[in-house]
From TrEMBL:
Pfam families the UniProt entry points to: MerR_1
Keywords: DNA-binding
HTH merR-type domain boundaries: 1-69
The organism's taxonomic lineage, starting at the top: Bacteria, Bacillati, Actinomycetota, Actinomycetes, Kitasatosporales
Name listed for the protein in its UniProt record: MerR family transcriptional regulator
PROSITE patterns noted in UniProt: HTH_MERR_2
SMART domains (UniProt xref): HTH_MERR
Endpoints of the signal sequence: none
A molecular-function term among this protein's GO annotations: DNA binding
């Protein structure tokens, strides 16, 4: 068992964020008689999973609903639908980011070619 500060250090997540996860029932510590939070070793992996799901754009509510599915293989048709929609949103964002990166690659390549030939990008005045 570890205290909240150790969990924060091991996961690189602030104590404030861990308390937020607790408030939203994403993370449930054991409590000592004096009220101190104690977390099992498995909390490290759970916090990393929560961070990944937040980074993917999922809300606290969706993550809360999703965790039993991920951890205990329990899913509902509604949750599956929500997750599919979220995946489709992520796919669209990835496509847009890839297009933007490809455009920047072309601009960089053209700018480098112009510098090699002595032509300045943007008018060269």
């Amino acid at each position: 068992m570890m205290r909240i500060g150790e969990l924060a250090t091991r996961t690189h997540v602030s104590v404030r964020a861990l308390r937020y996860y607790e408030e939203h029932t994403l993370l449930t510590p054991d409590r000592t008689p004096s009220g101190q939070r104690h977390y099992p070793e498995s909390a490290v992996a759970r916090v990393h999973l929560i961070q990944q799901l937040y980074a993917a754009g999922l809300s606290s509510r969706t993550i809360r609903d999703l965790l039993p599915c991920v951890l205990d293989d329990q899913a509902t048709p509604e949750l599956l639908h929500r997750l599919t929609e979220q995946r489709n949103t992520l796919t669209a964002k990835l496509t847009a980011l890839t297009t933007t990166r490809d455009t920047l690659d072309r601009v960089i390549a053209n700018a480098e070619a112009n510098l090699r030939t002595g032509e300045a990008c943007g008018g060269g005045e």
